[in-house]
UniProtKB/TrEMBL annotation:
<dbReference type="Pfam" id="PF12732">
    <property type="entry name" value="YtxH"/>
</dbReference>
<dbReference type="InterPro" id="IPR052928">
    <property type="entry name" value="Desiccation-related_membrane"/>
</dbReference>
<keyword id="KW-0812">Transmembrane</keyword>
<keyword id="KW-0472">Membrane</keyword>
<feature type="transmembrane region" description="Helical">
    <location>
        <begin position="12"/>
        <end position="30"/>
    </location>
</feature>
<protein>
    <submittedName>
        <fullName>Gas vesicle protein</fullName>
    </submittedName>
</protein>
<keyword id="KW-1133">Transmembrane helix</keyword>
<dbReference type="InterPro" id="IPR024623">
    <property type="entry name" value="YtxH"/>
</dbReference>
């Protein structure tokens, strides 16, 4: 997970925790029966839990998408580099073989001249 995504997740968690604390404090100080207040707290807690699950699912999907994109980009780049290296190898291999053949011909010619 990137630093930006970690910061976003941290901010989201802080906002949810703050909202939950605010709701709970508001309900505790409201002039209602304890049973009714506990019921509201429970309902609000369930709502917040559902919201957190939804946000987690969204963030999780974004992370999976980003991983897929990065993975694809890496594979394409690695393939491109491999082809470039292979093409360079083939090019220089042919040049070396050609030059080696020229050197062999020159050496054979010198040897023939020395034999005469």
């Amino acid at each position: 997970m990137s630093r930006k995504e970690k910061n976003t997740a941290g901010i989201l968690a802080g906002l949810l925790a703050g909202a939950a604390a605010g709701v709970i404090l508001g309900m505790l100080y409201a002039p209602e029966e304890g049973k009714e207040t506990r019921k509201k707290i429970k309902n609000k807690a369930n709502d917040l839990k559902d919201q957190a699950k939804d946000k987690y699912g969204e963030v999780s999907e974004k992370v999976k998408d980003q991983y897929g994109n990065i993975s694809s980009t890496f594979k394409e780049t690695a393939s491109s580099v491999a082809h470039t290296v292979k093409d360079g190898y083939d090019k220089y291999k042919d040049q070396i073989v050609s030059k080696t053949a020229d050197v062999v011909k020159d050496v054979e010619a010198e040897l023939n001249d020395l034999k005469k």
